[in-house]
């Protein structure tokens, strides 16, 4: 058998222009690295999407420390509850007939239930004042002062013997018209 047993065809003609055998061009590094790059980039992006969309996490706003908005109007600061059963002694130290009784009537009209109007000396008190015997009675003393239109509200001074509860001393500076 000779090498030219067959006539020349297109394959024989192409053999002269291309490399013969297993000679291939080397593959670029980018072609080798692209699958790894896709995994390195796609995996974190996919994880972020799952956490954000599916689990509802990843909220970058500080919503956890901010309370939800409400439609309620702002409330006034809490005021202590007034115990209207607090004993209230009204001392008429002005010498005006019926002054303590008139003040007692105003307190009764406003819900106070334990009122004792009396005539008394001022005993060193210089102006109309509402005194309270303990912090428990401070709210009641402030309410009494507001009803009677008295500005001065104080704790009972040390050394004074006043009844438990609230003591009101009405002096000549008291004006019943300023009462509410």
From TrEMBL:
Family matches, as Pfam families: LytR_C (PF13399)
Gene3D superfamilies on file: 3.30.70.2390
Keyword Methyltransferase: no
InterPro entries reported for this sequence: LytR/CpsA/Psr_C
Transmembrane segments: 32-55
Domain LytR/CpsA/Psr regulator C-terminal: 86-174
Location of region: Disordered: 1-24, 60-82
Domain of life: Bacteria
Protein's name in the database: LytR C-terminal domain-containing protein
């Amino acid at each position: 058998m000779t090498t030219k047993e067959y006539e020349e065809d297109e394959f024989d003609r192409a053999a002269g222009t291309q490399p013969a055998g297993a000679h291939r061009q080397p593959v670029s590094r980018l072609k080798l690295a692209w699958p790894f790059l896709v995994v390195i980039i796609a995996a974190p992006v996919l994880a972020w999407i799952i956490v954000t969309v599916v689990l509802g996490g990843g909220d970058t706003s500080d919503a956890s420390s901010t309370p939800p908005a409400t439609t309620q109007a702002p409330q006034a600061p809490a005021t202590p509850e007034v115990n209207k059963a607090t004993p209230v002694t009204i001392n008429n130290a002005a010498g005006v007939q019926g002054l303590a009784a008139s003040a007692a009537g105003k307190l009764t009209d406003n819900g106070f239930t334990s009122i004792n109007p009396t005539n008394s000396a001022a005993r060193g008190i210089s102006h109309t004042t509402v005194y309270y015997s303990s912090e428990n009675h401070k709210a009641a003393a402030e309410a009494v002062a507001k009803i009677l239109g008295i500005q001065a509200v104080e704790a009972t001074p040390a050394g004074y013997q006043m009844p438990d509860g609230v003591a009101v001393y009405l002096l000549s500076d008291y004006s019943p018209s300023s009462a509410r």
